[in-house]
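Typical record was shown:
=====
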Amino acid sequence: MDVLMIGGTGTLGHAVAPLLSHCNVTVLSRDEFKQKKMMQEYPQFGYVIGDVRDVSTFPAKKFHIVFHFAALKHIDVCEDNVTECIKTNVLGTENVRNFCHTMGVKYAVLSSTDKAVLPINTYGFSKALAEKVFFEANTGETPTRFSVFRWGNVIGSRGSVVPIFKESLLKDKLVKITHPAMTRFWITSNDAAKYIVHNYKQASKVDAMIPNMKASLVSDVALTIADILGIEDYETDTIGIRPGEKIHECLRSTHNFCLRSDNCPIYSIKELTELVRPYI
C-alpha cells in the first residue's frame, strides 16, 4: 500500500511512521535536515523535498492514502505572518485536495486543531478554512474520502509547553503562566497516531473526527512537571494572555453544545503525572 505523508517529518509523522512499517511510505517535506534525521530511523521510506504550497513538487504517482500534516502551527508566528499562514494552511490544503482528486487517492486525512473551533486567531481561522476545503471536496464526485482529525494540544510536540516549563524550572525555578484559569485539552502524539490509523477508513465526510480527550489547567501541568523533577519550591509569573490566545479551547461547537476545556473530564494530578513523565 502506497502512502504519502506531507509534512511527515514532524511530531505526528514520527508517531504515525511505526504504524506504517508494512507500507510503501513517501515523506514529503521542505526541511532536508529533518529528513536526514528521519532517514536514519526509517531508511526504508522514500523522501522528497517539496512544499505543500507547490503542487509541482508532489510525487507524480497514485497513493492509497495521503496524510496531510504540514502546517504553520505557532499562534504568535501566524499572527505576525498572516499571508504566509494562509499560503501554507489554506492554499496548501487546497493543493493537497486537488492532487488527491487528480491522482485518484482513496483516502485523504487532514490533521487539525481545536483552535479551528470558534476561531479568534489567524492559525485557528486558517485551519477552520482548511477543514472546509477538505469537507467541500466530499460534496462532489470524487474517488477520495476526505476526512479531518481534530486534536487539542499534542503533548511533547515541538512548541509544547512541557519542554518550555521543564527548561524554566531547571534553570530559574520559575514558570511563566499566561492566565491562572487557562485550560487545554491534551493528547499524546502516539494516541493521536493510533486514532488516525485505526479510523481513517470509516471517518466522517462531514464532521471532524475527535478522540476522547481530557483537559487540565495549564498551571497544573507546570505543577506536575515540577513534582516529577523533584522541585518543591518554584515561582509562578503571570504574564498575561498573548494576542490570539483563548483562556479555554473548544473541540466541538454547535448552537446548543460546546465541548470546552473547562467543562469536560479533567485530569487529576496523578493522571497528569503519568501523562507528562515520559516527556521529562
